[in-house]
Amino acid sequence: MPQTFDICIRGAGVVGRTLALLLARERLRVALVAGPAPVASDVRAYALNAASRQLLESLRSWPDAAHATAVARMQVHGDQGGEVSFDAAAQGVPALAWIVDVPALEARLADAVRFQSHIELLEAPVPAALTVVCEGRASRTRAEFGVEFDATPYPQHAIATRLVCELPHGQTARQWFSHDSILAFLPLGGADGNAVAVVWSVPAEQVPGLLALDAHAFEERLYAASLGALGSVRLGSERATWPLQLAQARHWCGTAPSTGSWVLAGDAAHNVHPLAGQGLNLGLGDAQALAQVLGAREGWRSVGDLRLLRRYERQRKAEILPMGLATDGLQQLFARPEGAWQMLRNGGMKRFEHSGPLKNWIARRAMGSH
What we know:
The protein is an alpha/beta fold. The chain has helices spanning 14-25, 50-58, 88-91, 102-114, 140-144, 207-212, 215-225, 279-295, 306-334, 339-353, 357-366; strands spanning 5-10, 30-33, 45-48, 68-71, 73-77, 83-87, 97-101, 119-122, 128-133, 149-165, 172-177, 182-188, 195-203, 233-235, 240-249, 253-256, 260-264, 270-271. The strands form three sheets. Strands 5, 6, 10, 11, 12, 13, 14, 15 and 18 form a nine-stranded mixed β-sheet that branches. It has a six-stranded mixed β-sheet with strand order 8-2-1-9-17-16. Strands 3-7-4 form a three-stranded antiparallel β-sheet.
């Protein structure tokens, strides 16, 4: 007799696997559909907050300390001397965030899925009472369902890579804003490490030239952009790039003739600029909220009930709106090269640094403890 499923999740990335584990914990039968394996090594690293760590620990999927480096301090530098810093000790927390290696996190989630009897890994979608789309920003299923995805492209692309630095990172995440780019060095390799994950948001027209540079020339560009903060740097991986955008699906749930009820989660539902490092935290928040809504439903109500799914949609849109506005506002503010705007943004950074309660409130929201 063929197996029947309550939920079919299309996309077996971090959000899809996390959601599958959460739903299996609710005794729901889950089909998890994986896409093709990546052809290149993944150089990305995620900044995960305390809420995301707690969620992943509850699923026994948090990586070990060598692959989840605690951020004790964060330093943000403007383009005319403006500076903002955050300190975990001042916030009374063990870490502001953790920089997590993507392959290590995916491996832990894959192990957890493998030992969960309520989850079956499949190569193709199957009928279910609810289809959850977790395929990422370029989701084919979202397009098949005719969902309008309102996307505003930024004039920047992200370049990601790994560096080995002359000096240890000291568990400090560093970020440099200029009028046309944003560079982040995120600590890797544990408390005493000297490796960093790089996310460099640069004008789209500069990307081909930067990728064409040989390793030494590219290292020199990063050394200059980081003001030599960690001494000389050496490439530790290939370089990857992707376009940046602010985007959100008009509708996060609905019905389709071919599949019945569907709902979106993660990057298939929303994209924000990576400057605040909140993308995956928002996606994991989606997974947790959807699992809670479905787990708390009345016994007679189907997991595909649109009233449930709209409840999830309203909750998550309200949570994501402030982060989208904040990251977009910062990107727009630093995109202006005029001297008056430089003075405004750097003066604002200096005032924010000494704002006390406002600074603490922003820090706690970013840490997921609001």
